[in-house]
Amino acid sequence: MFTESSPSRAQTSPERCSALAERFIAIRGQTEALISPLSSEDCQLQSMPDASPAKWHLAHLTWFFETFILERFEPGFTPFDPGFRVLFNSYYNGVGDKYPRPRRGLISRPSLEEVLAYRAQVNQRMLELMAHVEAGADTGLQRDLAELVTLGLHHEQQHQELLLTDIKHALSFNPARPAYASRWPLAGIHPQPVTWTRHDAGLIAHGFDAARDGEFAFDNETPRHKVYVAPFELASRPATNGELMAFIADKGYQRPEFWLSMGWDWAVANQVSLPLYWQGDEGSYQHFTLQGLIDVDPNTPACHLSYFEADAFARWAGARLPTEFEWELAARSVAASPAPHGNFVEKAAYHPLPQQEESHGVPAQMYGDVWEWTQSNYNPYPGYRPWEGLVGEYNGKFMCNQFVLRGGSCATPQSHIRASYRNFFPPDARWQFSGLRLARDLALD
Fold first, then answer.
1. Are 16 and 146 in contact (CB under 8 A)?
2. What is the pLDDT of residue 17?
3. Where in the chain are the domains?
4. How many CB atoms lie within 10 A of CB 270?
5. For the segment 380-430, what is each residue's pLDDT rounded down to a tens digit?
Protein backbone atom coordinates (compact mmCIF):
# COMPACT_ATOMS: atom_id res chain seq x y z
CA MET A 1 0.00 0.00 0.00
CA PHE A 2 2.84 2.39 0.90
CA THR A 3 6.33 2.36 -0.51
CA GLU A 4 9.62 3.62 0.87
CA SER A 5 9.26 6.71 -1.31
CA SER A 6 5.71 7.51 -0.23
CA PRO A 7 5.68 11.24 0.55
CA SER A 8 3.98 11.18 3.93
CA ARG A 9 4.55 7.86 5.63
CA ALA A 10 3.36 7.47 9.18
CA GLN A 11 6.68 7.13 10.98
CA THR A 12 5.42 4.46 13.38
CA SER A 13 7.97 1.88 14.42
CA PRO A 14 7.05 -1.72 15.30
CA GLU A 15 7.95 -1.03 18.94
CA ARG A 16 5.01 1.37 19.14
CA CYS A 17 2.28 -1.08 18.16
CA SER A 18 1.02 -1.36 21.75
CA ALA A 19 0.84 2.43 22.04
CA LEU A 20 -0.99 2.49 18.70
CA ALA A 21 -3.52 -0.01 20.02
CA GLU A 22 -4.13 2.23 23.01
CA ARG A 23 -4.64 5.19 20.69
CA PHE A 24 -7.01 3.10 18.59
CA ILE A 25 -9.13 2.37 21.66
CA ALA A 26 -9.12 6.02 22.77
CA ILE A 27 -10.05 7.55 19.41
CA ARG A 28 -12.69 4.98 18.59
CA GLY A 29 -14.15 5.53 22.05
CA GLN A 30 -14.17 9.29 21.57
CA THR A 31 -16.34 8.93 18.46
CA GLU A 32 -18.93 6.98 20.43
CA ALA A 33 -18.72 9.51 23.29
CA LEU A 34 -19.66 12.24 20.81
CA ILE A 35 -22.98 10.54 20.05
CA SER A 36 -23.87 10.03 23.73
CA PRO A 37 -26.06 13.19 23.84
CA LEU A 38 -28.00 11.99 20.77
CA SER A 39 -31.07 9.81 20.46
CA SER A 40 -31.29 7.06 17.88
CA GLU A 41 -33.66 9.36 15.96
CA ASP A 42 -31.04 12.13 16.01
CA CYS A 43 -28.49 9.70 14.60
CA GLN A 44 -30.72 9.02 11.59
CA LEU A 45 -31.04 12.65 10.47
CA GLN A 46 -29.59 13.92 7.18
CA SER A 47 -30.43 17.58 6.62
CA MET A 48 -28.72 18.13 3.25
CA PRO A 49 -26.73 16.14 0.67
CA ASP A 50 -23.36 17.42 1.96
CA ALA A 51 -24.07 16.14 5.47
CA SER A 52 -24.36 12.57 6.69
CA PRO A 53 -26.30 10.95 9.52
CA ALA A 54 -24.35 10.26 12.69
CA LYS A 55 -25.18 6.58 12.27
CA TRP A 56 -23.63 6.58 8.82
CA HIS A 57 -20.44 8.19 10.18
CA LEU A 58 -20.20 5.45 12.84
CA ALA A 59 -20.60 2.73 10.24
CA HIS A 60 -18.36 4.27 7.58
CA LEU A 61 -15.49 4.67 10.03
CA THR A 62 -15.79 0.99 10.88
CA TRP A 63 -16.07 0.11 7.19
CA PHE A 64 -12.71 1.85 6.66
CA PHE A 65 -10.88 -0.44 9.10
CA GLU A 66 -12.72 -3.53 7.87
CA THR A 67 -12.16 -2.80 4.16
CA PHE A 68 -8.62 -1.44 4.11
CA ILE A 69 -7.07 -3.37 7.00
CA LEU A 70 -8.94 -6.49 8.08
CA GLU A 71 -9.69 -7.54 4.52
CA ARG A 72 -6.00 -7.27 3.68
CA PHE A 73 -4.32 -8.58 6.82
CA GLU A 74 -6.76 -10.73 8.82
CA PRO A 75 -6.38 -14.50 8.28
CA GLY A 76 -9.63 -16.03 7.09
CA PHE A 77 -11.28 -12.64 6.72
CA THR A 78 -15.08 -12.66 6.66
CA PRO A 79 -17.04 -9.40 6.50
CA PHE A 80 -19.45 -8.53 9.28
CA ASP A 81 -22.13 -8.05 6.62
CA PRO A 82 -21.30 -8.19 2.89
CA GLY A 83 -23.94 -5.54 2.16
CA PHE A 84 -22.08 -2.95 4.23
CA ARG A 85 -19.37 -2.77 1.56
CA VAL A 86 -21.73 -0.74 -0.63
CA LEU A 87 -23.86 0.95 2.03
CA PHE A 88 -20.96 2.59 3.85
CA ASN A 89 -18.49 3.26 1.04
CA SER A 90 -18.07 7.02 0.76
CA TYR A 91 -16.22 7.89 -2.45
CA TYR A 92 -13.74 5.06 -3.05
CA ASN A 93 -14.50 4.08 -6.63
CA GLY A 94 -11.72 1.51 -6.55
CA VAL A 95 -13.55 -0.42 -3.83
CA GLY A 96 -16.75 -0.76 -5.85
CA ASP A 97 -20.30 0.52 -5.85
CA LYS A 98 -21.52 3.22 -3.46
CA TYR A 99 -24.91 4.06 -2.03
CA PRO A 100 -25.88 7.60 -3.17
CA ARG A 101 -24.65 10.21 -0.71
CA PRO A 102 -27.83 12.37 -0.75
CA ARG A 103 -29.87 9.32 0.36
CA ARG A 104 -27.85 8.22 3.38
CA GLY A 105 -30.63 9.38 5.68
CA LEU A 106 -32.90 6.74 4.11
CA ILE A 107 -30.76 3.88 5.42
CA SER A 108 -33.00 3.04 8.38
CA ARG A 109 -31.51 -0.44 8.56
CA PRO A 110 -29.13 -1.51 9.94
CA SER A 111 -30.29 0.08 13.18
CA LEU A 112 -28.05 2.17 15.40
CA GLU A 113 -27.73 -0.82 17.72
CA GLU A 114 -26.54 -3.00 14.84
CA VAL A 115 -24.04 -0.36 13.76
CA LEU A 116 -22.65 -0.17 17.29
CA ALA A 117 -22.39 -3.98 17.32
CA TYR A 118 -20.51 -3.73 14.00
CA ARG A 119 -18.10 -1.25 15.58
CA ALA A 120 -17.58 -3.46 18.63
CA GLN A 121 -16.83 -6.54 16.56
CA VAL A 122 -14.42 -4.76 14.21
CA ASN A 123 -12.71 -3.10 17.18
CA GLN A 124 -12.07 -6.47 18.77
CA ARG A 125 -10.81 -7.97 15.53
CA MET A 126 -8.52 -4.98 14.97
CA LEU A 127 -7.00 -5.30 18.44
CA GLU A 128 -6.46 -9.03 17.96
CA LEU A 129 -4.84 -8.38 14.58
CA MET A 130 -2.53 -5.69 15.99
CA ALA A 131 -1.49 -7.99 18.85
CA HIS A 132 -0.88 -10.88 16.44
CA VAL A 133 1.22 -8.80 14.06
CA GLU A 134 3.14 -7.20 16.93
CA ALA A 135 4.07 -10.63 18.25
CA GLY A 136 5.40 -11.75 14.86
CA ALA A 137 8.81 -11.23 13.32
CA ASP A 138 7.75 -9.56 10.07
CA THR A 139 8.78 -5.94 10.59
CA GLY A 140 7.55 -4.98 7.13
CA LEU A 141 4.09 -6.25 7.99
CA GLN A 142 4.21 -4.41 11.31
CA ARG A 143 5.14 -1.19 9.54
CA ASP A 144 2.46 -1.51 6.86
CA LEU A 145 -0.22 -2.26 9.44
CA ALA A 146 0.86 0.62 11.69
CA GLU A 147 0.76 3.05 8.77
CA LEU A 148 -2.76 2.08 7.77
CA VAL A 149 -4.06 2.11 11.35
CA THR A 150 -2.57 5.58 11.84
CA LEU A 151 -4.23 6.79 8.64
CA GLY A 152 -7.52 5.24 9.76
CA LEU A 153 -7.37 7.02 13.10
CA HIS A 154 -6.74 10.42 11.49
CA HIS A 155 -9.61 9.66 9.12
CA GLU A 156 -11.75 8.91 12.19
CA GLN A 157 -10.81 12.24 13.75
CA GLN A 158 -11.85 14.05 10.57
CA HIS A 159 -15.25 12.42 10.84
CA GLN A 160 -15.55 13.30 14.51
CA GLU A 161 -15.63 16.93 13.43
CA LEU A 162 -18.00 16.19 10.58
CA LEU A 163 -20.30 14.34 12.95
CA LEU A 164 -20.62 17.48 15.08
CA THR A 165 -21.08 19.91 12.21
CA ASP A 166 -23.59 17.62 10.52
CA ILE A 167 -25.72 17.12 13.63
CA LYS A 168 -25.62 20.86 14.31
CA HIS A 169 -27.03 21.49 10.86
CA ALA A 170 -29.71 18.84 11.36
CA LEU A 171 -30.78 20.06 14.82
CA SER A 172 -31.02 23.64 13.54
CA PHE A 173 -34.17 22.72 11.62
CA ASN A 174 -36.00 21.64 14.75
CA PRO A 175 -38.25 24.53 15.88
CA ALA A 176 -37.57 23.59 19.50
CA ARG A 177 -33.90 24.55 18.93
CA PRO A 178 -32.58 21.56 20.89
CA ALA A 179 -29.10 21.80 22.42
CA TYR A 180 -26.49 19.12 21.84
CA ALA A 181 -24.73 20.30 25.02
CA SER A 182 -25.66 22.75 27.78
CA ARG A 183 -22.59 24.52 29.09
CA TRP A 184 -23.31 28.18 28.39
CA PRO A 185 -21.81 30.65 29.25
CA LEU A 186 -18.57 29.09 28.13
CA ALA A 187 -16.05 31.79 28.98
CA GLY A 188 -15.63 35.30 30.22
CA ILE A 189 -15.47 37.98 27.55
CA HIS A 190 -12.15 39.77 27.22
CA PRO A 191 -12.37 42.15 24.25
CA GLN A 192 -9.07 42.44 22.42
CA PRO A 193 -8.47 45.09 19.74
CA VAL A 194 -7.00 43.77 16.55
CA THR A 195 -3.32 44.46 15.94
CA TRP A 196 -1.12 43.62 12.98
CA THR A 197 2.04 41.55 12.79
CA ARG A 198 4.55 42.24 10.00
CA HIS A 199 6.17 39.41 8.08
CA ASP A 200 9.10 40.12 5.79
CA ALA A 201 9.52 38.86 2.27
CA GLY A 202 11.45 35.71 1.67
CA LEU A 203 11.75 32.30 0.10
CA ILE A 204 10.32 29.97 2.73
CA ALA A 205 10.14 26.21 3.14
CA HIS A 206 6.51 25.21 3.16
CA GLY A 207 4.64 21.98 3.86
CA PHE A 208 4.90 19.07 6.25
CA ASP A 209 8.00 19.09 8.45
CA ALA A 210 8.32 15.88 10.45
CA ALA A 211 10.67 17.52 12.93
CA ARG A 212 8.03 20.10 13.87
CA ASP A 213 4.68 18.69 12.83
CA GLY A 214 4.77 15.21 14.35
CA GLU A 215 4.82 11.73 12.88
CA PHE A 216 1.97 11.88 10.40
CA ALA A 217 0.75 13.99 7.49
CA PHE A 218 -1.77 13.49 4.74
CA ASP A 219 -0.33 13.29 1.24
CA ASN A 220 -1.68 16.73 0.30
CA GLU A 221 0.67 18.36 2.84
CA THR A 222 3.71 17.15 0.91
CA PRO A 223 6.28 17.41 -0.48
CA ARG A 224 7.94 20.21 1.44
CA HIS A 225 8.99 22.91 -0.99
CA LYS A 226 10.00 26.57 -1.14
CA VAL A 227 7.59 29.41 -1.87
CA TYR A 228 8.32 33.12 -2.24
CA VAL A 229 6.19 35.23 0.08
CA ALA A 230 5.98 39.00 -0.42
CA PRO A 231 5.94 41.24 2.68
CA PHE A 232 2.58 41.25 4.42
CA GLU A 233 0.93 41.77 7.76
CA LEU A 234 -1.56 39.52 9.47
CA ALA A 235 -4.30 40.32 11.95
CA SER A 236 -3.63 39.25 15.53
CA ARG A 237 -6.88 37.33 15.80
CA PRO A 238 -9.77 36.06 13.66
CA ALA A 239 -12.48 38.49 12.60
CA THR A 240 -15.24 38.69 15.21
CA ASN A 241 -19.02 38.70 15.18
CA GLY A 242 -18.95 42.36 16.16
CA GLU A 243 -16.90 43.23 13.10
CA LEU A 244 -19.24 41.16 10.97
CA MET A 245 -22.19 43.06 12.45
CA ALA A 246 -20.58 46.29 11.24
CA PHE A 247 -20.31 44.78 7.76
CA ILE A 248 -24.00 43.84 7.90
CA ALA A 249 -24.99 47.29 9.20
CA ASP A 250 -23.09 48.87 6.29
CA LYS A 251 -25.24 46.81 3.88
CA GLY A 252 -22.28 44.60 3.01
CA TYR A 253 -24.55 41.76 1.88
CA GLN A 254 -26.33 44.15 -0.49
CA ARG A 255 -23.29 45.86 -2.05
CA PRO A 256 -21.97 43.99 -5.10
CA GLU A 257 -18.71 45.97 -5.18
CA PHE A 258 -17.37 43.79 -2.36
CA TRP A 259 -18.34 40.45 -3.89
CA LEU A 260 -16.83 38.14 -6.46
CA SER A 261 -19.20 37.69 -9.36
CA MET A 262 -19.85 34.06 -8.53
CA GLY A 263 -20.27 34.98 -4.87
CA TRP A 264 -22.80 37.72 -5.65
CA ASP A 265 -24.81 35.33 -7.82
CA TRP A 266 -24.74 32.78 -5.00
CA ALA A 267 -25.86 35.32 -2.38
CA VAL A 268 -28.70 36.62 -4.57
CA ALA A 269 -29.90 33.18 -5.66
CA ASN A 270 -29.92 31.89 -2.07
CA GLN A 271 -31.17 35.16 -0.52
CA VAL A 272 -28.17 35.27 1.81
CA SER A 273 -28.24 38.31 4.08
CA LEU A 274 -26.81 36.89 7.33
CA PRO A 275 -24.28 34.20 8.27
CA LEU A 276 -25.60 30.66 8.56
CA TYR A 277 -27.62 30.04 11.75
CA TRP A 278 -28.14 33.79 12.42
CA GLN A 279 -31.58 35.31 12.87
CA GLY A 280 -33.02 38.61 14.05
CA ASP A 281 -32.29 42.23 13.34
CA GLU A 282 -29.49 44.67 14.07
CA GLY A 283 -28.94 44.89 17.81
CA SER A 284 -30.78 41.65 18.57
CA TYR A 285 -29.06 38.91 16.62
CA GLN A 286 -29.22 35.33 17.81
CA HIS A 287 -27.73 32.20 16.30
CA PHE A 288 -28.20 28.49 16.65
CA THR A 289 -25.28 26.68 18.25
CA LEU A 290 -24.61 23.24 19.67
CA GLN A 291 -25.54 24.90 22.95
CA GLY A 292 -28.95 25.87 21.55
CA LEU A 293 -30.19 29.30 20.45
CA ILE A 294 -28.12 32.09 22.04
CA ASP A 295 -27.39 35.76 21.58
CA VAL A 296 -24.56 36.52 19.16
CA ASP A 297 -21.51 37.60 21.16
CA PRO A 298 -19.66 40.41 19.36
CA ASN A 299 -16.26 39.33 20.75
CA THR A 300 -16.42 35.74 19.53
CA PRO A 301 -14.78 34.75 16.21
CA ALA A 302 -17.28 34.84 13.35
CA CYS A 303 -17.99 31.40 11.93
CA HIS A 304 -20.10 29.46 9.46
CA LEU A 305 -19.06 31.80 6.69
CA SER A 306 -18.61 30.72 3.10
CA TYR A 307 -15.49 31.68 1.20
CA PHE A 308 -17.65 34.20 -0.67
CA GLU A 309 -18.72 35.88 2.57
CA ALA A 310 -15.21 35.84 4.02
CA ASP A 311 -13.76 37.38 0.86
CA ALA A 312 -16.47 40.06 0.69
CA PHE A 313 -15.94 40.98 4.35
CA ALA A 314 -12.18 41.24 3.79
CA ARG A 315 -12.67 43.58 0.84
CA TRP A 316 -15.10 45.71 2.83
CA ALA A 317 -12.50 45.91 5.64
CA GLY A 318 -9.86 47.20 3.22
CA ALA A 319 -7.87 43.99 3.52
CA ARG A 320 -7.82 40.52 2.00
CA LEU A 321 -7.66 36.87 2.93
CA PRO A 322 -4.14 35.50 3.47
CA THR A 323 -2.65 32.89 1.21
CA GLU A 324 -2.13 29.50 2.78
CA PHE A 325 1.62 30.13 2.55
CA GLU A 326 1.31 33.34 4.55
CA TRP A 327 -0.89 31.60 7.09
CA GLU A 328 1.60 28.77 7.59
CA LEU A 329 4.52 31.19 7.89
CA ALA A 330 2.68 33.01 10.68
CA ALA A 331 1.60 29.78 12.36
CA ARG A 332 5.21 28.62 12.53
CA SER A 333 5.89 31.60 14.79
CA VAL A 334 3.53 30.12 17.38
CA ALA A 335 5.24 27.55 19.58
CA ALA A 336 2.50 25.00 19.14
CA SER A 337 3.90 21.91 17.44
CA PRO A 338 3.30 19.05 17.38
CA ALA A 339 0.29 19.55 19.69
CA PRO A 340 -1.07 23.06 19.13
CA HIS A 341 -2.81 24.88 21.95
CA GLY A 342 -6.31 26.19 21.42
CA ASN A 343 -10.05 25.68 21.75
CA PHE A 344 -10.44 22.17 20.36
CA VAL A 345 -13.13 19.53 20.75
CA GLU A 346 -11.53 18.27 23.97
CA LYS A 347 -12.66 21.47 25.71
CA ALA A 348 -16.26 20.45 24.96
CA ALA A 349 -17.21 24.05 24.23
CA TYR A 350 -18.36 23.06 20.73
CA HIS A 351 -18.30 26.75 19.83
CA PRO A 352 -15.63 29.39 19.17
CA LEU A 353 -14.53 31.40 22.20
CA PRO A 354 -13.44 35.04 22.55
CA GLN A 355 -9.73 35.75 22.67
CA GLN A 356 -8.67 35.14 26.26
CA GLU A 357 -5.12 36.47 26.33
CA GLU A 358 -3.19 39.35 24.80
CA SER A 359 -1.30 38.60 21.62
CA HIS A 360 2.08 40.09 22.70
CA GLY A 361 3.19 40.36 19.08
CA VAL A 362 2.31 36.73 18.24
CA PRO A 363 -0.88 35.85 16.37
CA ALA A 364 -3.58 34.53 18.72
CA GLN A 365 -6.08 31.75 18.09
CA MET A 366 -4.18 30.39 15.11
CA TYR A 367 -5.35 26.92 16.13
CA GLY A 368 -8.84 25.87 17.14
CA ASP A 369 -11.97 28.03 17.37
CA VAL A 370 -12.57 28.47 13.60
CA TRP A 371 -11.09 27.16 10.40
CA GLU A 372 -9.64 30.16 8.57
CA TRP A 373 -10.33 30.59 4.88
CA THR A 374 -7.33 31.42 2.74
CA GLN A 375 -7.37 32.80 -0.80
CA SER A 376 -5.39 29.78 -2.01
CA ASN A 377 -6.92 27.31 -4.41
CA TYR A 378 -6.63 23.72 -3.25
CA ASN A 379 -3.95 22.61 -5.69
CA PRO A 380 -1.21 19.99 -5.51
CA TYR A 381 2.21 21.03 -4.28
CA PRO A 382 5.09 20.75 -6.79
CA GLY A 383 6.04 17.10 -7.02
CA TYR A 384 2.86 15.89 -5.28
CA ARG A 385 2.16 12.18 -5.39
CA PRO A 386 -1.02 10.64 -3.98
CA TRP A 387 -0.73 7.51 -1.86
CA GLU A 388 -0.56 4.25 -3.70
CA GLY A 389 -3.39 1.75 -3.68
CA LEU A 390 -7.06 2.21 -2.81
CA VAL A 391 -6.36 4.74 -0.05
CA GLY A 392 -4.90 7.02 -2.71
CA GLU A 393 -8.49 8.11 -3.42
CA TYR A 394 -8.33 10.45 -0.47
CA ASN A 395 -7.17 13.99 -1.21
CA GLY A 396 -5.86 14.40 -4.75
CA LYS A 397 -9.17 13.65 -6.46
CA PHE A 398 -10.72 16.76 -4.86
CA MET A 399 -8.15 19.25 -6.18
CA CYS A 400 -10.66 21.22 -8.24
CA ASN A 401 -12.96 24.13 -7.33
CA GLN A 402 -11.96 24.13 -3.66
CA PHE A 403 -10.23 26.62 -1.36
CA VAL A 404 -7.82 25.87 1.48
CA LEU A 405 -8.68 26.47 5.14
CA ARG A 406 -6.16 26.31 7.98
CA GLY A 407 -5.89 25.95 11.73
CA GLY A 408 -8.67 23.66 12.91
CA SER A 409 -11.79 24.56 14.87
CA CYS A 410 -13.62 24.05 18.14
CA ALA A 411 -14.77 20.69 16.74
CA THR A 412 -11.29 19.48 15.71
CA PRO A 413 -9.39 16.98 17.89
CA GLN A 414 -6.21 18.59 19.19
CA SER A 415 -3.90 15.75 18.17
CA HIS A 416 -5.23 15.88 14.62
CA ILE A 417 -4.06 19.38 13.66
CA ARG A 418 -0.65 20.84 12.74
CA ALA A 419 0.78 23.87 10.96
CA SER A 420 0.93 22.07 7.61
CA TYR A 421 -2.63 20.70 7.72
CA ARG A 422 -4.71 21.62 4.66
CA ASN A 423 -8.49 21.48 4.91
CA PHE A 424 -10.52 22.28 1.80
CA PHE A 425 -14.11 23.05 0.84
CA PRO A 426 -15.95 24.58 -2.12
CA PRO A 427 -16.49 28.35 -1.84
CA ASP A 428 -20.20 28.14 -0.99
CA ALA A 429 -19.74 25.73 1.94
CA ARG A 430 -20.52 27.22 5.34
CA TRP A 431 -21.87 24.51 7.63
CA GLN A 432 -18.34 23.93 8.92
CA PHE A 433 -16.88 26.14 11.67
CA SER A 434 -15.26 28.37 9.05
CA GLY A 435 -14.14 31.95 9.71
CA LEU A 436 -11.33 34.21 8.60
CA ARG A 437 -8.31 36.26 9.58
CA LEU A 438 -7.45 39.42 7.67
CA ALA A 439 -4.18 40.09 5.85
CA ARG A 440 -2.78 43.22 4.22
CA ASP A 441 -0.08 43.83 1.65
CA LEU A 442 3.06 45.75 2.53
CA ALA A 443 5.22 47.67 0.10
CA LEU A 444 8.22 45.87 -1.28
CA ASP A 445 11.48 47.24 0.14
1. yes
2. 55
3. 14-171, 196-441
4. 10
5. 999 999 888 888 778 888 999 999 999 999 999 999 999 999 999 999 999
How many distinct helices (H) and strands (E) make up the chain? Answer: 11, 12
Distance CA(301)–CA(285), nearest Å, equals: 15
Cα gap 89→67, rounded to integer Å: 9
In Å, how far are 196, 204, 315, 378, 406 from 439, measured between CA atoms?
9, 18, 10, 19, 14
Q: How far is CA 427 from CA 75, 101, 200, 262, 370, in A?
A: 45, 20, 29, 9, 16
Instruction: Report the relative pairing of strands 232-235 and 196-199 from DSSP bridges.
Output: antiparallel
CA distance 441 to 233: 7
Architecture of the 14-171 domain: Up-down Bundle (1.20)
pLDDT tens for 175-187 read 999 999 987 656 6
Burial tier of 224 (Cβ tally within 10 Å: 0-12, 13-18, 19+): middle
Instruction: With 0.85 as the threshold, say if the pTM is over it.
Output: yes
Whether residue 185 has a cis bond before it, omega within 30° of 0: yes
Measured CA to CA, the distance from residue 34 to residue 110 in angstroms comes to: 20
Whole-number average pLDDT of the chain: 92
Q: Do domains 14-171 and 196-441 have the same CATH topology?
A: no
Burial class of residue 203 in the structure, from the number of CB atoms within 10 Å of its CB (0-12 exposed, 13-18 middle, 19+ buried): exposed
CATH annotation of 196-441: 3.90.1580.10
Report the relative pairing of strands 292-295 and 434-435 from DSSP bridges.
unpaired
